[in-house]
Amino acid sequence: MTSIDPLVRLRAEHGVELGEDAWIALVPEVMPDHATAMAALIDELPLAPESLVIFGKPVETPRLVSFHGDPHARYSYSGRVFDPKPWTPFLASVRERVREVTGTRFDCVLVNHYRDGKDAMGWHADDEPELGPNAPRDVLIASLSLGAMRRFVLRHRRRSEDKRALELGEGNLLVMGGATQHRWQHCVPRTSKPVRPRMNLTFRLVRR
Length: 208
Hints:
Blueprint: H1 6-14, E1 15-19, E2 22-27, H2 34-44, E3 51-54, E4 57-60, E5 64-69, E6 75-77, E7 80-82, H3 89-102, E8 108-114, E9 121-124, E10 133-134, E11 138-139, E12 141-147, E13 150-156, E14 163-168, E15 172-178, H4 180-183, E16 184-188, E17 198-204
Antiparallel strand pairs: 1-2, 2-15, 3-4, 5-8, 6-7, 8-17, 9-16, 10-11, 12-15, 12-17, 13-14, 13-16
């Protein structure tokens, strides 16, 4: 009996085809004990605001950030090069859970902690040239969301009116594959509604 690749099965069971070789898949309840997991990661990780360069000026992120990975997984974005901190014990166990679902052993993760509705993420795409398997036309991102639900929006790069909105949180996993980062951008918009904290872990592959 031939086994089915976990990523192929995931795409078939949960996938949404966006066209132009872009696709996403939203898998519910990958981590049902998401609140406990988020609390453990808050205790374990060195979360802090991050200084990025936007239009030539240093800007502090409106969220707390920590980047971890294998030693080779240096990552460049927004005018800076980031060396990964080592995997912590609980973070490594979360990576293993994501590997079980996707069949992919990711080598780094960017952790974003949204403390309230004022914390947000602007429009961007994870299309840096070092991202694998073959950026920008084939990038695999697995985004695990813990804690409260927050609105996540995708928009097409050329057709900005073409948008898809999702609610991410409570232990669900969004996988973005193929040309999604090449064709689409995404954001986590601010909200004036009272919202509980949320943590998002975007697992990535960095080409050696």
